[in-house]
Write a structure and sequence with these properties.
By secondary structure, the chain is an alpha/beta fold. The chain contains 9 helices and 7 strands; from the N terminus they run αβαβαβααβαβαβααβ. Strands 2-1-3-4-5-6-7 form a 7-stranded mixed beta sheet, with helices on both faces. α3 (about 60-70) runs parallel beside α5. It is globular. The relative contact order is 0.15.
């Protein structure tokens, strides 16, 4: 579902940073879904009338380099694509976004919990819980082929108000009305 949520993340980010004319997308070129995420966000950016700057990072050093490039490209906001590598580097990403005063949106609430501005996506805890239930059913004898494929049905919108204040952003009521969690 990573690619399908990209347009919604762009929409939320533009509500927080409406003056942004260039939106950067950080993708891991090693992710097999990178092309689809880029395509979905390019279409959404075109529809919203903003430019999309795609930046690739597959290592810690490349993440540092990408943030230097964001300034050159005059990016007004950043969408961090869904990727296990980025999840493992969430402190680095949120610290760099804060250092560059760049509004950014992420997939999981864990990014907002460590200082990221906003996240929108499925609950990783619920995902693991469902995976555990599947394993339990398999261990009780159910054949994996007989189990239905499940996708998340609920998504969390988390906003870090402390980060918004540090960036000089006012979180609009339209977002606050939909938020599942506010971090202060």
């Amino acid at each position: 579902m990573a690619a399908e949520l990209m347009p919604k993340r762009l929409e939320l980010l533009l509500e927080l940073a409406p003056r942004a004319k260039v939106i950067a997308l950080l993708v891991n070129p090693n992710n097999p879904n990178a092309g689809r995420m880029i395509g979905d966000l390019q279409a959404a950016a075109l529809e919203k009338g903003v430019q999309l700057a795609v930046l690739n990072a597959g290592t810690e050093v490349e993440i540092d380099t990408v943030f230097a490039m964001l300034v050159q490209r005059e990016a007004g906001a950043l969408v961090v694509s869904a990727d296990p590598f980025f999840f493992s580097r969430r402190e680095q990403l949120t610290t760099l976004a804060a250092r560059h005063a760049l509004p950014a949106i992420y997939e999981f609430r864990e990014f907002a919990a460590v200082g990221g501005l906003i996240s929108y996506g499925p609950s990783i805890i619920d995902t693991y819980r469902k995976a555990g239930a599947y394993v339990g059913r398999i261990l009780k004898g159910v054949k994996p082929a007989d189990l239905p494929v499940e996708q998340p049905t609920t998504f969390e919108l988390v906003v870090n108000l402390k980060t918004a204040k540090a960036l000089g952003l006012t979180v609009p009521p339209s977002i606050l009305a939909r938020v599942d969690e506010v971090i202060e």
